[in-house]
Write a structure and sequence with these properties.
Strand content: 15-25%
Pfam families: Amidohydro_1
Keywords: Hydrolase
Number of helices: 17
InterPro entries: Amidohydro-rel, Metal-dep_hydrolase_composite, Metal_Hydrolase, MTA/SAH_deaminase
Shape: globular
Radius of gyration: 24 Å
Family: Belongs to the metallo-dependent hydrolases superfamily. ATZ/TRZ family.
Protein name: Amidohydrolase family protein
Distance between the termini: 88 Å
CATH architecture of one domain: Alpha-Beta Barrel
């Protein structure tokens, strides 16, 4: 069997619908890098064999190999921090100052009924898959509607989802919660962990929005329950200066120190952001085995700082890349991760490499899988793991000629190069669109429903939309010009 060449016929989606597939891509992204002359055998939703193309084809004469010229087969990307039920808001938060969750996200999510919850999650799942993410970690919704609406969205789109259930037992003030209320929340948490334990796409998780909205007892219990169930405990931490200072005033501890003091850190914990961290807190993350969701686009758009990801990598702190629901484009996320470290660390220290490209690929795939509790299930092209993968078109001007594929994927690759998206060995998207459901109909539903949903929510924006902002700026400039001219005439 010869290796596929660029002159072979282009791929068609109807050839990828079988349960058993023997694929011969031009390149395969393995832990050691991009390899040629490889074949990948997929059956029963998993990678069964990965190895030399000639050998695998001889071993399976009953199968017709599918040649994939000009295609890279790579692991699906993993979004370690998302908010699937915020997609109806999107650019409402653009240009807003920090802690937008208080003024925009909590009001919006709290106003969603089950139908809107499903609609929002399905739209977010579609965006994630289009951006190359085969897995997204949902941090939990503030909607009181049944969370099965989110799992239905995952099932219908094929997105693998780590589904967080929020366990907040305080209203944001200091003090201890009502023991009966805490018990009721923990009972629901136990049911949540049991309900999704064996689901083919959904893995359960527990979450606290930020440490200050949960009692010490709840923080400890939710983290412990997650560990017992083999899941993860999620919380936002050290993201905004205001939250750090509130914690210092209330407890004389920074948020990460608070979590450590109550026994909530550990290998089961995934803390989102961790941008404002001291050397001591970095040591806490390392020594407890706690994982971090590094969200570089969120830092750029509305954060107070950038997480020291290169230092985390050097210390052996577990971390993966997350979007925080900003934009679901996996290649741009990796580019943002590298760029953030280049601007905050590399320029000042003379580090021109800032991870060498491969670091960001690794932390968008297998390291992310480890961070979110899915190691051994997904994140690599390896026998026994779920067949969650992408086919990426390499036959494009931007990646020709190729001298260093990992760097090219981080800095040059684009979402529009993703030919196919698979989860559990099943083709979900072809050239950006679902193969078995009507995404255009979903977009029409969203357009019809979003306006009323946003209008109903008690959202408060500090800044006007960009067009109104432009008029204000232009008006101020005209006033300034008139005042200057008047002063000139008087002199």
């Amino acid at each position: 069997m010869t290796h596929p060449t660029r002159s072979a016929p282009r791929l068609a989606p109807d050839r990828l619908g079988d349960e058993t597939l023997l694929l011969l891509p031009e390149e395969v992204l393995l832990p050691e890098g991009c390899q040629t002359h490889q074949a990948v055998l997929i059956a029963a939703g998993k990678f069964q064999e990965v190895g030399d193309a000639t050998t695998l084809c001889r071993r399976h004469p009953e199968l017709t190999p599918i040649e994939l010229p000009g295609q890279l087969l790579m692991p699906g990307l993993i979004d370690t921090h998302h908010h699937l039920t915020q997609s109806l808001g999107k650019s409402l938060v653009f240009g807003e100052p920090s802690e937008i969750f208080k003024r925009i996200w909590i009001p919006l999510e709290a106003s969603l009924d089950e139908e809107l919850l499903h609609l929002s999650a399905k739209l977010a799942a579609l965006e994630a898959l289009r951006g190359g993410f085969t897995t997204a970690v949902d941090a939990g919704t503030r909607s009181a509607a049944d969370m099965t609406a989110i799992t239905r969205a995952a099932e219908e789109t094929g997105l693998r989802c780590v589904l967080g259930m929020i366990c907040n037992d305080l209203g944001g003030g200091a003090g201890d919660s009502d023991p009966e209320a805490r018990t009721a929340i923990l009972q629901r948490a136990e049911r949540h962990l049991a309900q999704w334990q064996s689901h083919p796409l959904v893995s359960p998780s527990l979450a606290v929005s930020i440490p200050e909205v949960a009692s010490d007892a709840m923080l400890h219990a939710a983290s412990a329950l997650s560990a017992e169930a083999g899941g993860i405990f999620q919380t936002h931490v050290n993201e905004h200066l205001q939250a750090v200072e509130r914690s210092l005033v209330a407890r004389r501890q920074r948020p990460l120190e608070h979590l450590h003091a109550v026994g909530a850190l550990g290998p089961q914990a995934l803390v989102a952001h961790a941008t404002l961290v001291t050397p001591n807190e970095l040591n806490l993350l390392r020594d407890t085995g706690t994982a971090v969701a590094f969200n570089p686009v969120a830092s750029s758009w509305k954060g107070n700082a950038v997480a020291p990801a290169l230092q985390m990598a050097a210390l052996g702190i577990r971390f993966g890349l997350g979007t925080d629901g900003t934009r679901s484009d996996g290649f741009r996320l990796m580019d943002a991760a590298e760029t953030s470290q280049r601007l905050t660390v590399g320029l000042a220290s003379g580090d021109s490499s800032c991870g060498g490209g491969w670091l960001w690929l690794d932390h968008a795939t297998r390291a992310s899988a480890d961070a979110v509790g899915l190691k051994g299930l997904t994140g690599e092209i390896a026998p026994g793991l779920a067949a969650d993968f992408l086919l990426v078109d390499l036959d494009v001007p931007e990646m020709t000629p190729s001298w260093d594929r990992p760097w090219e994927l981080v800095r040059y690759a684009n979402r529009d190069q993703i030919e196919a998206v698979f989860t559990n060995g099943r083709l979900r998207l072809w050239q950006g669109w679902p193969v078995d459901w009507d995404a255009r109909a979903l977009l029409r539903e969203v357009r019809e429903a979003a306006g009323a949903a946003v209008e109903r929510a008690p959202i408060y924006r500090v800044h006007p939309p960009s067009s109104a902002h432009r008029e204000t700026v232009n008006g101020n400039q005209e006033i300034g010009a008139e005042l200057t001219a008047g002063a000139a005439r008087r002199t």
